[in-house]
Specification:
The chain is an all-alpha fold. The chain is 71% helix and 0% strand. It is built from 39 helices and no strands.
Length: 675
């Protein structure tokens, strides 16, 4: 029988009138009861102390302090505080107990107030049991300056060598993002325990130093420090983030070697690591070997299949999950709804919606957002709007979903109206909001609205984000406002002008007939050491084609080799169109015959279009023959070939082409008039 059990059995002796417990015995009992969180027994002991008259004896100043500490250690804040306030002489133990209680109960400010009062009293000094909770409270309140002052007191008091104190300082500095200061504390610790190493590993990762997290882990292994479950849970996210699958597998071997693989948190971390590294087979093996899977286990697997493109398997896990008695949570449902959206599975989506309503999860913001997105992608925007109207409309995510859904369904004007209403209702847009709504402004090309958006982006500070500034320039360019686009372009620092930004502006100049400007921009881009890619070459070749810049276009086409870019069919299409517009149809056909890949329908279509303009029957027949094979149901090709025959007076061949259309069952799409 252990000491605690013996103490509990002997309590009956202290509830008699003949035996009066000493302060030492009361202290022993109080700490036994507190360790077991036995509030009822502490109350009984408190009552016995009162009725026995102990409070009137010479020890009365000591026993109330013990009782206050006992209530504090058992977690009962009101009783502990009430007794503490009545103490005439507050002991170090009573202060420490109250500081610990406030910290553990989630009242860090009160803990620091108690600490300050302790210092002001001048009767008791903080010790190694005080500081860890004070430091933790500083961290929770993000009070860096106060935390630095406390660190100074710790150094002055000489308790910095205590491992518990060192660990608390290490965690505090990591919570402030002060990695170097945390590392200094760690290096100066004499007795590092597994908690010290784990805190440094997880802190490095959370502060964006995943590689350093792995380095610390390697140092830990080299130091022969024994790892535990928390070590594994701390280091695996770094492997996942860096996609270091080989290191992840070695850690998995360590898990097996140290018999840590029965812990569910460790297994969930392993699954998450394999999922994020794209190794779904390994993730599934760990998943299948896990006996008691929780909602995190299932959600990780479902998310993994979605991220890795296997949405059908993700959905198939749901009935298995329910059969095992694990109910999806809001995050699980959000993932499943995302799968339904990708697959356009409206029926499954409605089923999950019903399940969410039945389990009161439909008001969760993740589920709301998932439902709006799912219905929009399934082209049931009415349901998206209905779901959105049931939300509180105070969070940004549902607004982003309805904006994105509007654009998904071609409702560009409505998307802009939603964006305006969002701001009127006081909901703050974020970067994702702006990215959602930019396509609507780009398609509607209403210059007045674009100017209003520009003003908002300046006022809100979003224009400092390079990708959003690029989006705005793209809208100006598509609206034909090339001057505004260029002015905005020049306001972006030279070092921040990436290939996407240059390509957007080059494309805008090309589409609006300013081929010379597009070529000039392309040359400036090259001079600025920004290497062209396939997209930028497509944009400038297209600009040359529409502006008749044949020599420039051919020069740029040949330049692709200098950058190791193999021309794609769409690059050939631009050059063939360029040559065709210039009447160099034979040269265009010669280029086609030299293509390293089989020409597709756009390549032959460009040649046929050129043959139509220049009435080249011979090459027109070659192009038409290939197009009839590649896309036999495209009526436009038959009509173009028929027009070529008609233009040169070969009426019989023109009639034959029309007969071919009739035999295949093709009909020319009727024209439409706005009159």
């Amino acid at each position: 029988m252990n000491g605690t059990s013996t103490a509990l059995l002997n309590i009956s002796h202290f509830f008699t009138r003949t035996i009066v417990p000493t302060a030492t015995q009361i202290e022993s009992l109080l700490y036994n009861y507190a360790a077991n969180k036995s509030l009822t027994d502490i109350k009984k002991l408190h009552a016995h102390v009162i009725t026995s008259g102990l409070l009137t004896q010479w020890e009365s100043r000591y026993i109330p302090a013990l009782l206050s500490s006992g209530y504090a250690l058992s977690g009962h804040l009101p009783y502990a505080r009430q007794l503490f306030d009545k103490l005439h002489q507050r002991t170090k133990r009573s202060y420490n107990s109250m500081i610990k209680l406030y910290t553990e109960k989630g009242f860090p400010y009160n803990a620091l107030e108690m600490f300050v009062e302790m210092l002001k009293s001048g009767r008791t000094k903080p010790d190694r049991l005080t500081y860890p909770f004070v430091v933790k409270s500083c961290a929770e309140l993000s009070m860096l300056q106060f935390g630095l002052s406390v660190h100074g007191l710790i150094l002055h008091s000489g308790v910095e060598s205590n491992t518990f104190v060192g660990n608390s300082l290490l965690a505090m500095y990591m919570s402030f993002g002060k990695k170097d200061e945390a590392k200094r504390v760690f290096d100066e610790m004499h007795d590092k325990c597994v908690v010290s190493w784990n805190t440094l590993i997880s802190g490095c990762f959370k502060n964006g130093f995943a590689n350093e997290s792995l380095s610390v882990f390697n140092e830990m292994i080299d130091s022969k420090m024994e790892i535990d479950n928390a070590t594994i849970v701390s280091i695996l996210p770094a492997c996942a983030y860096l996609k270091e699958i080989d290191i992840g597998r070695k850690i998995h071997d360590l898990v097996k070697k140290n018999n840590l693989d029965e812990n569910l948190y460790v297994r969930n971390a392993l699954i998450d690591m394999y999922v994020k590294c794209g190794e779904m087979e390994d993730a599934r093996i760990v998943f299948n070997e896990t006996n008691q899977r929780d909602v995190v286990t299932w959600t990780s697997m479902i998310n993994g299949y979605i991220v890795n493109g296997d949405t059908r398997t993700a959905i198939s896990l749901c009935p298995l999950m329910l059969h095992e008695g694990v109910n999806p949570n809001a995050l699980t449902l959000a993932s499943l709804l995302s799968s339904c959206a990708d697959l356009k599975h409206l029926k499954h989506g409605k089923t999950f919606h019903a399940w969410a309503m039945k389990n009161n999860l439909d008001s969760d913001v993740n589920v709301e957002t998932g439902l709006i997105d799912m219905y929009a992608k399934c082209m049931f925007f009415t349901y998206s709007f209905r779901t959105f109207n049931k939300t509180s409309k105070t969070r940004t995510a549902p607004w982003n979903a309805i904006l994105s859904g509007s654009i998904e369904n071609g409702l560009y004007t409505e998307a802009i109206l939603f964006f305006k209403k969002m701001r009127l209702e006081g909901v703050g847009p974020n970067e994702a909001t702006i990215k959602c709504v930019l396509p609507a402004y780009a398609i509607t090309t209403n210059l007045k609205q674009v100017t209003n958006l520009h003003g908002y982006l300046i006022r809100s500070g979003f224009l400092s984000k390079s990708d959003l500034a690029t989006g705005l320039i793209d809208i100006y360019a598509k609206s034909g406002a090339l001057e505004q686009a260029y002015v905005q372009f020049t306001e972006i620092p030279l070092k921040e002008r990436d290939i996407v930004l240059w390509s957007v502006l080059i494309s805008g100049y090309g589409k609006h007939g300013n081929g010379e400007g597009a070529v000039l921009l392309f040359n400036q881009m090259v001079e600025c050491k920004v290497e062209p890619n396939e997209v930028s070459f497509t944009s400038v070749l297209h600009a040359c084609s529409h502006s008749g810049l044949v020599d420039e276009g051919l020069r740029l086409f040949k330049m692709m080799e200098d950058y190791g870019i193999t021309p794609r069919p769409y690059h050939y299409t631009c050059v063939i169109d360029l040559l065709g517009r210039a009447g160099r149809v034979e040269e265009a056909y010669g280029l086609i015959t030299k293509m390293p890949v089989s020409p597709n329908c756009t390549v032959w279509g460009a040649l046929l279009g050129a043959c139509t303009v220049h009435e080249n029957v011979e090459l027109g027949e070659v192009a038409a023959k290939r197009l009839f094979e590649l896309e036999p149901e495209n009526t436009g090709n038959y009509i173009l070939m028929g027009n070529i025959y008609a233009a040169v007076g070969r009426w019989e061949e023109a009639e034959n082409v029309r007969n071919m259309m009739n035999q295949i069952g093709l009909r020319k799409s009727p024209a439409h008039s706005f009159v």
